[in-house]
Amino acid sequence: MDRKARFNYQQKCKHRKVSGFINDPLKRQVSGKPPFPPSIDLLFFFGSFTSKIPSKATVKGVATAFAARDIFGNVLSGLYMQFSKPFSLGDTIKAGSIEGQVVEMGLTSTTVLNSERFPVLVPNSLFSSQVIVNKSRARWRAVVTKIPLQIEDLDKVPEISNAIKSMLKSNSKVFLGKEVPYCFLSHVEGSYAELTVGCNLRHMSKDELYSTQQDILLQSVRIIKKHGATLGSTFQCPIGQ
Asked: Which of 73, 183, 222, 236 fits a disulfide with 164 by CB distance 3.0 to 4.6 angstroms?
């Protein structure tokens, strides 16, 4: 390089340093000066940022994976119930907040008829995380009722209690294999006393169960009246009235 060309090159380098622009990108980073032109750097920045945003195909793939996981879980639970058989068609069950009669069993879901006679579609995976109570397979069902008496009839309670227990033991629908029926004075207030009557009833349909409970209650009331006692009231008058 001759002397004139070298002089021109030095003048150009000097002019670049004075203007604050360094052509080499590595030297620009070391010097701490902002890159130039800024539009190019912004383009690189937003390009790297947008490359991290998942595409529609990725989002659809993730959603499909979650849906497949739920379906697979329901299928596994359905297969497990086919082998373990915690309930069958027609059984009355309770699992968490779900209660009713099983009317349909599928591989991924089970249909339960609730108390309002509406069909409820339940995913089978729910049964794997809930305690299942199968009321239809119970050999007996405990029933308890409370009967108020007037406080003046406290002396008649022992005779009434024995008579009610004898009535329950002679009832063919009362199950005696687990525990004997009971009747005792369970509560006393200023204006009334309370008898608690309980027993285990044999397995039966819901209509028959309600009819049996009604019959036991009516017979208990007849026994109370037969012994000259009167039914009381649990209503308490406010003080000062």
From this structure: 183
Where the chain has pLDDT below 70, the residues are 1-75, 78, 236-241
Residue for token pair 């509560």: 187
In tens, the pLDDT along 97-110 reads 889 999 998 888 89
Q: Dihedral sign, CA of 155, 156, 159, 160?
A: negative
**Listed residue (52, 206, 100, 229) closest to 153, CA to CA:** 229
Number of domains in the chain: 2
Output the average pLDDT for the chain: 78
Q: Is 154 in the same domain as 123?
A: no
Q: Is the dihedral of CA 94, 98, 103, 106 positive or negative?
A: negative
Q: Are residues 149 and 132 in the same domain?
A: no
